[in-house]
UniProtKB/TrEMBL annotation:
NCBIfam families linked to this entry: PRK11274.1 (NF008434)
Name of the featured protein: Glycolate oxidase iron-sulfur subunit
Record note on cofactor: Binds 2 [4Fe-4S] clusters.
EC number annotated for this UniProt entry: 1.1.99.14
Domain 4Fe-4S ferredoxin-type: 32-62, 83-106
InterPro entries registered for this protein in UniProt: 4Fe4S_Fe-S-bd, 4Fe4S_Fe_S_CS, Cys_rich_dom, Glc_ox_4Fe-4S, Helical_ferredxn
Cofactor (UniProt): [4Fe-4S] cluster
Catalyzed reactions: (R)-lactate + A = pyruvate + AH2; glycolate + A = glyoxylate + AH2
Length: 461
């Protein structure tokens, strides 16, 4: 008798799902199916519905957190994994807004991660979907390959070839997902290489390791340089380990469990060897994944304890700066700023107050709040490439809310949000400055003029 049949016999007084095991022939196998106890926490109250971007867009129950949890329950109880079921899970942005909104503490983040890993193992995707995902995952989690792309991309931007291709609309018609990828590419500046150790200014208060990230490192090297300068000015020795790879965030958010675990082990090895008090992250999606390494590597006896120890050291840069408190002088920046909460910072890590406090403490800076702040901008890792239409709708909605604040600069703490919102703001025809939180702090510490941030990025559309 196999374990499942055995358990079914034991469970005559209840269903297999009561025992946490998936029914035979159903959507899931026994390797971490969506947790039945967590599914049971959902009391169907619907408080999460107005904060779920896909429910807001389409008003469909099965495209709400409650509906997706219901489908997980059906799958556990014996319903086979169908294309339709998968389409509703695929449409989820993984924004975790529902986790914040849920009064019953339903851990939808864990549930969707477990479900996605099952989908990737057990569902046959179409050839075109497989090809697109292979392309994405052969580029994005590879810092060196991304850096190699910089040259051709910069050449296209400098010659205006990118705009010319966009104007023809050909790519949009033939391959909307590739067109989405192209339109999101940020305006590339000069590469800035950081030394392996940046010594603290004045008395040393901490030794921190810094994750440089894949997209952050290749497309936003200025953000990494600003992060190192601000930490240095606030009394941190900043260690930037060479050869650090991807943290696994994109893989884990897309159900590529084994790949994510491989990347996570690499990061554990790298930062353990760096001997640092804290690991500072300036990309929200990376930070939330690294804080969850204990769960990701829980089944690996060689790494479980080490992953837990590392995860406890991981902090968003705004958390570290807020905890340390300021020692460096803030110079005035006379400007208005709208702060956009990146979902993986606000909903997944609960970091909302710290970046606002840091910005508020800059003399002359006026902070403005954005309406519908809890709604995702549509970036969501690679969602805006896989699902360009809803992502664009959400981006346009976010851009309208941002423009309505009348602020001069949009500030956020995630490269994905910066690319998505920059592209939507350009479409809105109301150009404005765009910056990461640490770039604003850096400008204040260095006494740069507000104009350096207020200037919109050069239009690419
Ligand atoms: S996930 Fe939470 S908020 Fe949404 S229906 Fe279930 S219990 Fe209610
Ligand atoms: S993670 Fe976001 S998109 Fe997915 S169900 Fe929750 S609120 Fe909706």
């Amino acid at each position: 008798m196999d374990q499942r049949t055995d358990q079914a016999a034991i469970g005559e007084t209840g269903s297999i799902i009561d025992l946490g095991l998936p029914a035979a022939g159903g959507a899931f196998d026994e390797h971490h199916p969506p947790d039945a106890a967590l599914i049971g926490d959902c009391v169907h109250c619907g408080f999460c519905l107005p904060t779920c971007p896909t429910y807001v867009l389409w008003g469909e129950e099965m495209d709400s957190p409650r509906g997706r949890i219901y489908l997980m329950k059906e799958g556990l109880e014996g319903e086979a994994m169908s294309d339709e079921m998968v389409s509703h899970w695929d449409a989820c942005l993984g924004c975790m807004s529902c986790v914040t909104a849920c009064p019953s503490g339903v851990q939808y983040d864990t549930l969707i991660e477990q479900t996605r890993a099952q989908v990737e193992r057990r569902h046959e995707r179409s050839a075109s979907d497989r090809a697109l995902r292979s392309l994405i995952f052969s580029i994005f989690p590879h810092p060196r390959r991304l850096r190699l792309l910089r040259g051709p991309l910069r050449a296209m931007q400098r010659t205006g070839l990118d705009r010319a291709v966009r104007r023809t609309g050909l790519l949009e018609r033939m391959a909307p997902q590739l067109a989405a990828m192209e339109s999101l590419a940020p305006r590339l500046g000069k590469p800035e290489r950081l030394p392996e150790r940046v010594p603290a200014t004045g008395q040393r208060r901490a030794v921190v390791g810094m994750l440089t990230g894949c997209v952050q490192g290749a497309f936003f090297p200025g953000v990494n340089a600003a992060t190192a300068r601000v930490l240095q000015a606030e009394g941190c020795d900043v260690v930037v380990p060479r050869g650090q790879g991807c943290c696994g965030a994109l893989s884990v958010h897309n159900g590529r469990e084994a790949e994510a675990q491989r990347y996570a082990r690499g990061i554990v090895d790298t930062f353990e060897a760096a001997g640092v008090d804290r690991v500072v992250v300036n990309a929200a999606g990376c930070g939330s994944t690294m804080k969850d390494y204990a769960r990701l590597l829980a089944d690996d006896p060689a790494y479980a304890d080490r992953a837990k120890a590392l995860a406890e050291k991981v902090k968003d840069v705004s958390e570290v700066l807020d905890e340390l408190g300021p020692v460096a002088v803030r110079h005035p920046l006379e400007m208005t700023v709208a702060y956009h909460d990146a979902c993986h910072l606000a909903h997944a890590q609960g970091v909302r107050a710290q970046p606002r406090r840091l910005l508020d403490a800059i003399p002359g800076l006026e902070l403005r709040e954005i309406a519908e702040a809890e709604l995702c901008c549509g970036s969501a890792g690679i969602y805006n490439i896989l699902k360009p239409e809803p992502a664009r709708e959400l981006g346009d909605r976010k851009a309208a809310n941002i423009v309505a604040t009348g602020a001069q600069v949009l500030v956020t703490a995630n490269p994905g949000c910066l690319m998505q919102v920059t592209s939507a703001i350009e479409r809105s025809g109301h150009p404005m400055g765009m910056a990461h939180t640490v770039e604003v702090l850096d400008a204040s510490l260095r006494g740069l003029p507000a104009d350096s941030l207020v200037r919109p990025p050069v239009a690419t559309a």
